[in-house]
């Protein structure tokens, strides 16, 4: 049995009922830098996305899960992207939507559950993520789960009139 349940949160598949939550996340300009978004998304487009969210990671090369509390509040999202089955690697992204829900261990618990899922069920050998040099909370989160900085991409993102560096972190499963 696949268990994506932790002590305080669980990870679940996207549902059509998540339309409003996803719409709010995707249209929150304060986090566009993290997702490389530059335009708003309509509810129509998000509904189409949700209608196809059931597709297999082996087909679409990505998987998005909701980080949910046990009283069924959607706290955030955790994503697998650029899934490469042949080379056994996948990218990871995570977001806790509301600032008041951050620094409470939800992201750490979700990341631990996702790493376990990737190793046991997807046979992934390595996971990686890209994090802005100034996002120390995310860097600390990923490093606490065995990710290591393997490179610094100089002037990688252009945001609010200036360039920012971005770290590439990697976790090799042994």
TrEMBL record:
What residue stretches are annotated with the N-acetyltransferase domain? 9-170
Q: Which InterPro entries match?
A: Acyl_CoA_acyltransferase, GNAT_dom
Its recorded name reads GNAT family N-acetyltransferase
Top-level taxon in the UniProt lineage: Bacteria
Q: What is the lineage of its organism?
A: Bacteria, Pseudomonadati, Bacteroidota, Flavobacteriia, Flavobacteriales
Q: What is the species listed in this Swiss-Prot or TrEMBL entry?
A: Gaetbulibacter jejuensis
Q: Which Pfam families is this protein grouped with?
A: Acetyltransf_3
């Amino acid at each position: 049995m696949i268990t994506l349940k932790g002590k305080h949160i669980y990870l679940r598949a996207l549902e059509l009922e998540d339309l409003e939550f996803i719409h709010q996340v995707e249209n929150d300009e304060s986090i566009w830098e993290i997702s490389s978004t530059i335009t708003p998304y309509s509810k129509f487009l998000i509904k189409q996305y949700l209608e196809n969210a059931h597709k297999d990671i082996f087909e679409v090369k990505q998987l998005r899960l909701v980080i949910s509390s046990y009283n069924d509040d959607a706290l955030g999202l955790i994503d697998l992207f650029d899934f490469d089955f042949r080379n056994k690697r996948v990218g990871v992204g995570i977001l806790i939507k509301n600032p008041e829900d951050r620094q409470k261990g939800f992201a750490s618990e979700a990341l631990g559950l996702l790493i376990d899922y990737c190793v046991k069920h997807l046979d992934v050998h390595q996971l990686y993520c890209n994090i802005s040099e100034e996002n120390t909370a995310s860097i600390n989160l990923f490093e606490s789960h065995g990710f290591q900085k393997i490179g610094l991409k100089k002037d990688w993102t252009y945001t609010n009139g200036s360039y920012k560096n971005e770290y590439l972190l990697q976790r090799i499963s042994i």
